[in-house]
Amino acid sequence: MKKKVWIARKLSDATLARAARDYDTIVNEADQPSTADQIVAMSAEVDAIVPCHSEHFTAEVAARLDPRLKIIANHSVGVDHCNLPALKARGIAVTNTPDVLSDATAEIAFLLMLGAARRAVEGDTMMRDGSWDFWSPAFMVGTQVTGARLGIVGMGRVGQVMARRARGFDMEVHYHNRTRLAPDLEHGATFHESLDTLLPVSDFLSLHCPATPQTTGLMNAETFAQLPKGAILVNTARGALVDEAALMAALDSGHLAGAGLDCFVTEPGGNPALAAYQNVFMLPHIGSATVRTRDAMGFRALDNLDAFFAGETPGDLL
Ligand code: DGY
């Protein structure tokens, strides 16, 4: 008999078709984030859940999950929405979808970096509202990306793609990671044991680490102050990494020239106060949102389910 799987959000057509072929699926056609009560209720109906980062498996939810549920095969690389120790204590396997979204996410990080540096929001607004009535050599001058110094926080898969792409812009790349990478994975980037040495050499700082209790508020008043004057922050990782009030204070003082953000403390919606900043280029958490990547994420989640139900260890077991 086919295993029963709840697909908690509307995944790509190719993913849903493959899932329906191999499993008895229930799809959340409403495509809304599920409440704790909905998650708990569904856990009694199915053997597996395929959620996104919008479904929160807190310790409280984990304690209430029905013993029927055996695996949570996330359609996301980030798993800060899952309390892993609590789920493990319940004997529930958890997987994620690394690798397959690294290119797409690094593309968005580059888009944000270039857009914030070259004042894309101001320029686009001007063209749309008809206010472009002046040109001079000093008009709309921005920060040049080519040849600038890029600091990468978190040299995992996305960080490494960033380092490779940055070479195409002749950037001088520096990184901080918990451990130093093997030379062939560094892509010519310089390792920094701590943020204290990375931040002062980062004209652009791009965040690529997970949100954990240790990284929450990583960018705050003190760390922003360590960046060079005129630096630009890029965040495609998680909103929790940035103290948004401190970010706005650094923009207000002119210490930061701008920011490019795909992630916010409050999602969806973001921080309405940031909308007042024309030097902040913002996107609604779409780092991995390409057709190819969404299919790949869905297939990777299903590969993990297939392995689990075949009695093997899923490739992305956490
Ligand atoms: C991820 O996979 O973690 C992305 O943020 C999208 O959920």
Question: What does this molecule look like?
Answer:
- With 318 residues, the protein is of the alpha/beta class.
- The protein has two domains: 4-100 and 291-309, 3-Layer(aba) Sandwich (Rossmann fold); 102-282, NAD(P)-binding Rossmann-like Domain (Rossmann fold, 3-Layer(aba) Sandwich), CATH 3.40.50.720.
- It is 35% helix and 15% strand.
- A seven-stranded parallel sheet has the order 8-7-6-9-10-11-12, with helices on both faces.
- It is globular.
- It starts with a strand and ends in a 9-residue tail after the last helix.
- It binds (2R)-2,3-dihydroxypropanoic acid.
- (2R)-2,3-dihydroxypropanoic acid binds at residues 52-53, 76-78, 101, 287-288.
- Tell me, briefly, the overall form: globular
Strand content: 15-25%
Q: In which order are the strands of the major sheet placed?
A: 8-7-6-9-10-11-12
Point out poorly predicted stretches: none
How many structural domains?
2
* CATH fourth-tier homologous superfamily of the largest domain: NAD(P)-binding Rossmann-like Domain
Strand count: 12
Q: What is the CATH architecture assignment of the largest domain?
A: 3-Layer(aba) Sandwich
Percentage of residues in helical conformation: 25-40%
Number of helices: 12
What is the CATH class designation of the largest domain?
Answer: Alpha Beta
Secondary-structure element order, N to C: EHEHEHEHEHHEHEHEHEHEHEEH
Say which molecules are bound, naming each kind only once: (2R)-2,3-dihydroxypropanoic acid
- Tell me the quaternary state: single chain
GO molecular function, one term: NAD binding
Domain D-isomer specific 2-hydroxyacid dehydrogenase NAD-binding: 111-287
Organism: Algicella marina
Protein name: D-glycerate dehydrogenase
